[in-house]
Amino acid sequence: MTFNPLTVRDDFPIFKRTIRDGKRLVYLDSGATSQKPQVVIDSELDFYRLSNAAVHRGAHQLAEEATDLFEGARGKVAEFLGAETDEVIFTKGATESLNLIAYAMGNAPRGNRFHLSEGDRIVLTEMEHHANLIPWQQLAARTGAELVWFNVTPDGRLDLSQISELITPKSKVVALTHQSNVLGTINPLDEIVKAAHAVGAVVVLDACQSVPHMKVDVKELGVDFLAFSGHKALGPTGVGIMWGKRELLAELPPFLTGGSMIADVTMTTASWAKAPAKFEAGVPNMAQAVGLGVAIDYLSVIGMNEIAAHEHELTADLLGKLLENKEIRVVGPHTMDNRGGALSFTVADIHPHDLGQFLDSQGIAVRTGHHCAWPLTRSLGVPATTRASLYLYNTIEDNDALISGIHSAMKYFGK
Amino acid sequence: MNLDNLYQEVILDHYKNPLNKTLSKHFDVQVHHINPSCGDEITLNLTLDGQTIKEITWDGVGCSISQASVSIASDLLMGKSLSEVESISEQFVELMQSKGKKTGDEAVLEDAVALAGVSQYPARIKCALLGWMAIKDATLQAVEKR
């Protein structure tokens, strides 16, 4: 670890406030949304204060400056992901990014490589967030394609023994999460990408829980499409990224149509601009995209490998402390091998909602419920869990506050 | 805010020893209600006798607030006329929406006044209302069925 999380915390104004009558904020819910450093908040405000104009339109100085800022942010995202600039599409969030891919594929005519029909397969995993499940479920229903999925083993890993039954020449899409938002599991992409490409399928990666936390290079991963949210990566809400390989974006039909995504328009026909414009109909969320660019600068200065190392250390500490207590059941890998900083667990028979409420009374913010991965929690036999998720501004002191909060909750609820 | 306002002893008692939590074999209507934000769910059987609720039985999983609330509601509303059920339920919903400003009429709401503290925790109001909404739904369906 080469940065000090306490110094980092000083950059985040929210840590100056207190919770529930003066308690220190222990924020363990970055998996839902991250907090924002002052520079990101300022950049969004400054865009409106100083540079606001509709990008890619208008023959005036403000429009030029706004366009430069917006396109500058696209360049930063591209560099961050090891991608080409015109492969980076701004959306309003990862959910929209994943829906964009699924709906665009649904628009593909016969003869297009993305065309799906009866007899084709969409391959998922049982650990998908609803945002990477339902768009595919619906696409399967519209096209007649078959939905199949990798199961999750009791220790929270993908059951790769199914790979050859699932990924077959019928498979057109393999959509999966890079890191589970519930289990913290980091999925083994190499084997899956290789199998998918061997049968001509494209790999769509939900990187919401990985891009903010580790170095992600699209070329190294070898995936075909990738989605993540700005707001989980220190950026503003209302901005997300859909990345796709240039040649695939050229063949993929558009999803939303309208202003600025066209090459030519008549009353009865339209042709499309090249990516990224092809997938960015309408005036985009400009201030938010600019804010995301600043968030990426902030992360890059600290260093993604340093952030990953810090989170690894914190996760190992918290995992060890949770596993020490026999009343706590950690749902997800119990080892640090390919494991990120989302830790879901149950405590005796205290319902997670009640545990979360108690922890809140101590100033500790966690997530409770099924975490938008209902099929997963059902398959694990836990209707709900409590999740702590860690980020660069968390400390061992936060872990200890959680452990002590859990012990107090057990006393409070008489367990 | 004091957590004890939320977790009154009465609530924890109902949570640990819920009333009517065995689904009856015979019923007029069965409903299944889910709180999609947290996954709490209950199945509830209801039988009418003329203008009176004859029986409410249920089963479910969820937090102490949702489970205690359905236990309290089933006990309170069983044997009451449909008009009484409507007026009691309205008072309960008002109490839940009072943001901590009402304490509830114990003569009408009985044990349900213990849930008054929930109204200060917006995220938990849905938990407390889960069972009440299931009873309302089942009652309407049972009346319609006749």
Overview features:
heterodimer, A: 415 residues, alpha/beta, Aspartate Aminotransferase, domain 1, Aspartate Aminotransferase, domain 2, 2 domains, four-stranded antiparallel β-sheet, 14 helices, B: 146 residues, alpha+beta, Sufe protein. Chain: A, three-stranded antiparallel β-sheet
Describe this structure in words.
The complex is a heterodimer of chains A (415) and B (146). By secondary structure, chain A is of the alpha/beta class. Chain A has two domains: 5-30 and 304-412, Aspartate Aminotransferase, domain 1, CATH 3.90.1150; 41-300, Type I PLP-dependent aspartate aminotransferase-like (Major domain) (Aspartate Aminotransferase, domain 2). Chain A is built from 14 helices and 17 strands. A seven-stranded mixed beta sheet of chain A has the order 4-10-9-8-7-5-6, with helices on both faces. In chain A, strands 13-14-17-16 form a four-stranded antiparallel beta sheet, covered by helices on one side. Chain A has a two-stranded antiparallel sheet with strand order 1-2. In chain A, helix 7 (189-198) links the parallel strand 7 (171-177) and strand 8. The longest helix of chain A has 21 residues, at 61-81. The model of chain A has no long low-confidence stretch (mean pLDDT 96). By secondary structure, chain B is an alpha+beta fold. Chain B is built from six helices and three strands; from the N terminus they run H-H-E-E-E-H-H-H-H. In chain B, strands 1-2-3 form a three-stranded antiparallel beta sheet, covered by helices on one side. In chain B, helix 4 (82-96) packs antiparallel against helix 6. Chain B is globular and about 45 Å long. At the A-B interface, helix 12 of A face helix 3 of B.
